[in-house]
Amino acid sequence: MIRKGTNDPTARVESPSRRSQQRGKNGQVTVRPFNESDFEFIRNLATKTEGYTVCPPYILWVLSRFQPQLCGIAEEIGRGSVGYLLALPVAIDCEAVFVWQLASTFRGRRLDAPAKLLKYLISGMRKHGIETLFFTTIPNSKAERDVRALAQRVFAASPIRGTPVPREASHGEHEYRVQLPRERR
User: Fold this and answer.
1) CATH number for position 106
2) Banded model confidence at residue 74, pLDDT cuts 50, 70, 90
3) Kindly report the CA angle at 45 between 169 and 54, in degrees rounded to 5?
4) Residue 36: phi, psi to the nearest 5?
5) Is 81 contained in some domain?
6) Is residue 83 part of a domain?
7) Which spans in the chain are helix H?
8) pLDDT digits over 94-135, tens only?
């Protein structure tokens, strides 16, 4: 195979199987609580995600400090960050969690980082006996379809549309709820 952009017939593109052998652990995504060194990545990706608020570093610090089981960073081993999740409890008795932002780079989506971030969240929720998750999105949008498919795959549950978000907060978004299935023992 000739590499695009060159006239050199000896320049070859490696086959996918050869690339993955050399890649080693690249391509594997792990999720961990985020810290100060991740703030720039989170803020930068938020600027590229339509409708997202760029979170002030102070709020990121609060979330990283007090919600480490609900907020995480997805990293491709050997290559760096590919996604993040910001979530917080919605009541004093913590009966539910609200997913504020779930974002991923293009590469992160290819590596299934959003699903891994949600599995991380589920683990944190289950540790605290939380079974309800809330988020907002625009009905019938690509984002809603993507989240619906992701929820079905990760939670084995479909989001239920709730009330609209006030126009002053966001035009066209609705609240959605996902009830996690009970854990089998």
Assistant:
1) 3.40.630.30
2) very high
3) 35
4) -55, -35
5) yes
6) yes
7) 16-23, 39-47, 57-66, 106-110, 113-127, 142-155
8) 789 999 999 999 999 999 999 999 999 999 999 988 999 999
